[in-house]
Amino acid sequence: MLVGILKETGTEKRVAMLPGEVAVLRKLGLDVIVETGAGDNAFAVDSAYLKTGAVIAERKDVISKSAMTLSVAAPVEDINMYREGQIICSVLNPVDNKVWLENARQKGLSVLALDLIPRTTRAQSMDILSSMATVSGYKAVLEAASLLPRFFPMFMSASGTIKPARVLILGAGVAGLQAVATARKLGAIVEVFDVRSAVKEEVKSLGGRFIEVEGAKEDAAAGGYAVEQTEEFRKKQQELIQQRAIAADVVIATAQIPGKKAPVLVLKETVMNMNPGSVIIDLAASSGGNCELTENGRSIMINGVTIIGKSNYPSEMSSDASKMFGSNIINLLKIMVDKDGSMALNMQDDIINGTTAVHGKEYISMRIKQMLNIK
Ligand code: NAD
Prior knowledge:
By secondary structure, the chain is an alpha/beta fold. Helices cover 34% and strands 18% of the residues. It is built from 13 helices and 17 strands. It has an eight-stranded mixed sheet with strand order 3-2-1-4-5-6-16-17, sandwiched between helices. Helix 4 links the parallel strand 5 and strand 6. Helix 1 packs parallel to helix 11. It is globular, with a radius of gyration of 22 Å. The relative contact order is 0.15. The mean pLDDT is 95.
């Protein structure tokens, strides 16, 4: 089977697979065709791909010849170049790409949505949401540390003692926990809010202080994810966050609810009361933001507080982020590819079923049907 690797468009710097991972694909018995310059922004040149035995070609040839294309973002502009039976494997962003997905279904394409991989133990090694969130949590803290006009660690010097910075982390999922670990390593004092009590021990074990707000709604059926909270809880939480944010130098906001707008946790009033020079990094910016003032894709300063609305830190760490992304895809392909290098989508497998958005002109994944309200 021939697998194609596409060059990303726009500002995205990652590539779906680096040469090191392409070599692993070749060992699985797959042939690989790579779009010219696909790895350039992740510092992987065409000649490195050629050394793995892959072929380099123009985009239209990669798409027309491949049985399956790999990319970070869905190739939304290129759908007309695909034909029935081909497989697209990428991040889908189903809510934004609903119309595109419907076109792909009607054309008889198969779409493997990497952001739909079930979050089960067996699928952990294929989970791009987790690997990319790890990058985001780490990089967000580094950006905050470089923007903050103060030290992160405590400093004792001849010119006196400098107190450590205080970092407030909202949401202790994968990105939040990585942010706790990174901020602690840099010597900051870390406080954390989350609505899932299960994360309390993890936060503590990383050296953070978990701040509990009583009355959080949890739902075991949400598969480990958070659910929307009552108005009463939200008010209580916003007040407590305001108290802690005023005492903090940095806020890293990561709270999200799958398929919904991100909860607003930091109000305008809170920002107005924060210390000038403080930094808010809002990783939930693309789903509405956890801070009322966040502007997606922009860096703004209000009342001396810098607010960064950025959701795509992995693109800024294109080398390791691409490496992790490619490894995740390989682990997924390993359960799909036969010994002779041919591939079958076995819909009885919960991971394949859960990840396949459309196949054979049908919507397959239960989650996609729920998200897009398809009966
Ligand atoms: P996410 O990006 O959807 O959300 C980030 C965090 O924000 C979550 O911890 C969530 O509880 C929190 N949050 C949501 N609303 C909030 C609010 N109003 N106030 C404060 N916090 C709020 O989550 P994620 O990081 O993708 O994953 C969440 C969890 O899913 C993980 O911690 C884990 O339990 C589970 N998970 C399992 C696997 C697996 O088993 N393979 C993989 C990844 C994640």
